[in-house]
Amino acid sequence: MNVKNYVRFEFQSLPENVAFARACVAAFAAQLDCTLDAIEEIKLVVSEAVSNSIIHGYGNRPNEKVVVAASIFDDRTLEIIVEDYGSGIKDVEKAIQPTFSSDPARMGLGFTFMKSFMDEMEILSKPGEGTSVRLKRSFFAKDKEAYA
Ligand SMILES: Nc1ncnc2c1ncn2[C@@H]1O[C@H](COP(=O)(O)OP(=O)(O)O)[C@@H](O)[C@H]1O
Ligand SMILES: [Mg+2]
Questions:
Q1: Which residues does ligand 1 sit against, CB inside 6 Å?
Q2: What pLDDT, on a 0 to 100 scale, did the predictor assign at position 140?
Q3: How many whole angstroms from 145 Cα to the centroid of ligand 2?
C-alpha cells in the first residue's frame, strides 16, 4: 500500500513531551477526517507508548531520545511507530499481559489500551538496545457508521 503522507520527529525524554507527541500525532491523524472519539483514542495510545519509553525504557533519565513516526496510507490506514534506545523488554509476551507491570505502583494496562484501540500492535525489542512499538488502525473498519 502506498504512503500518502508521512511525518517523523524526535524529542528529549522529558515527561512534558508526552503531551507534545500526543498533540502532534493527533493533528496529523486529523487529516483522515476521523471521528473525535477516534482522535481521543489515538492520543491515548501515543501517550501510553511515549510514557513507556520515558519511564521504562529510560528509567526517567531526561537526556535520551524518543522517535515518533506516523504514516497515512492510501487505504486510510494510520501507522504510528514509537521508538526508544533504552533498556528494551526481556519478555514481550509477558509485558503485554493485562495488568502486568514491572513496577508494582503502576496499572500495567498501557499495552492493553494500545492493543484494544488499534487494529494491530507489533513490538520489536532487544534488551539493552531499545524498543519499537508499531501500531496500525484502519479508518474504514472501525468508523464505518460515522461515514454512512
Ligand atoms: N519502551 C519500553 N522499554 C522497556 N520496557 C517497557 C517499555 N514499554 C513497556 N515496557 C515494559 O512492559 C510493561 C508493561 O507496560 P504497560 O502495559 O504500559 O504497563 P505499565 O506502564 O503500567 O507498567 C512495563 O511495566 C515495562 O516493564
Ligand atoms: Mg505503560
A1: 48, 52-53, 56-57, 84, 86-89, 95, 100-103, 106-111, 131
A2: 78
A3: 31
Calculate how far, in angstroms, residue 80's C-alpha sits from the geometric centre of ligand 1.
Answer: 17
What angle do the packed helices 36-52 and 16-29 form, to 10 degrees?
Answer: 140
Report the distance separating Cα 12 and Cα 4, nearest Å. Answer: 28
Q: Give me the number of domains the chain comprises.
A: 1
Question: CATH no. for residue 66?
Answer: 3.30.565.10
E strand or H helix at 36: helix 36-52
Rounded to 5°, angle at Cα 47 from 146 and 41:
10
Residue with cell 464505518: 144
Q: Is 0.90 topped by the overall pTM?
A: yes
pLDDT at 148: 43
Please count the residues of the chain: 148
Q: What is the pLDDT of residues 82-133, one digit of tens each?
A: 999 999 999 999 999 999 999 999 999 999 999 999 999 999 999 999 999 9
What residue numbers bound the domain in which 85 lies? 3-147
Positive/negative CA dihedral, 135, 124, 55, 25: negative
